[in-house]
Design brief:
The chain has 286 residues and is α/β, with parallel strands linked by helices. It contains 9 helices and 13 strands. α6 runs parallel beside α7 and α7 runs parallel beside α8.
Length: 286
């Protein structure tokens, strides 16, 4: 199979996967692509690499450590390409040949370069056990406005994601107030909540249709909830079978503390009748 490597962006996900690899007794290495320091327990198996020097930094480190399988986990935004980047020549040439620099185009290009060197990118969930929420409503009943906003927002979120722009939209009163672009989910939530004047906007987050599970699955965690609370957003709608929920028990406990309702949907994300059934008294999951 080859040694496991983890490309670690910001956040908890890379370290949840690292703990799982450790529990399985695997030999693994972590390659840091953000300035966040690793947990002390993983400092000895971690090293920093530069995404903008993909060939001379990232690939060189993966090959030196004899990595055969690779996980891509954690937050990393496109602005790394524009924030005083230091490219190597082969990375510049790789970028120049891309038809665009959307997230999925970049992933496909990188995946092909890795495959040529017999490094296989594996699904993100292979080392993230029990990371999805079952379909249902978690928290308070929805208002009539929220019942209308969720299918409206999910429809727009799917379209935005189809265009490879982002995964998240913020809506209120059947109006789109923010669309996630290169800035990431948290800043999208802040912007949308502020534009709705903190009156209880709905955050909708989805994955692409036929999404590649090796790359950039939608993720929600306690930080998402804290950002929503600051922005005055009251509902988070996600897909039950494709949105990674970081540390589910803590996530649901925090949502309850903050008064945020989580709606987890599968199948038709715009099914109003199903939402109404889900909103009946005594049907909440928690």
């Amino acid at each position: 199979m080859g040694r496991l490597g983890i490309i670690a962006g910001r956040g908890e996900l890379p370290w949840i996967a690292a703990r799982e690899a450790q529990r399985r007794g695997e030999d693994f290495r972590v390659f840091l692509v953000s300035s966040d320091p690793p947990p002390e327990a993983f400092a000895d198996v971690s090293e920093p690499v530069l995404l903008t020097r993909f060939y001379t930094s990232v690939l060189a480190a993966l090959q030196r450590e004899k990595i055969g399988r690779l996980l891509l986990l954690g937050k990393s935004t496109r602005d790394v390409l524009y924030d005083r980047p230091s490219f190597d020549l082969r990375t510049l040439w790789m970028l120049a040949r891309m038809p665009n620099r959307n997230d999925y185009t970049i992933f496909q290009t990188i995946e092909r370069a890795l495959a040529k060197r017999r490094i296989r990118v594996i699904p993100q969930t292979d080392y993230l056990s029990d990371c999805f929420l079952e379909e249902g409503r978690y928290g308070k009943r929805l208002s009539s406005r929220e019942l209308e906003d969720i299918p409206y927002g999910m429809l727009y979120a799917m379209e935005v994601n189809r265009l490879d722009i982002g995964q998240c939209v913020v809506v209120g009163d059947r109006t789109v107030f923010a669309v996630e672009c290169a800035e990431g989910t948290d800043r999208c939530i802040e912007r949308g909540g502020e534009l709705f004047h903190k009156k209880g906007a709905v955050v909708c987050k989805v994955s692409k249709r036929n999404h590649d599970p090796r790359f950039d699955l939608p993720t929600a965690g306690t930080q998402t909830l804290e950002t929503m609370k600051r922005a005055g957003c009251r509902v988070l709608a996600i897909e039950s079978n494709s949105t990674i929920v970081v540390q589910k028990k803590e996530f649901l406990k925090k949502a309850k503390e903050l008064g945020i309702t989580i709606v987890s949907l599968k199948g038709d994300l715009t099914d109003v009748k199903k939402l109404r059934r889900m909103n009946r008294p005594f049907t909440a999951k928690s």
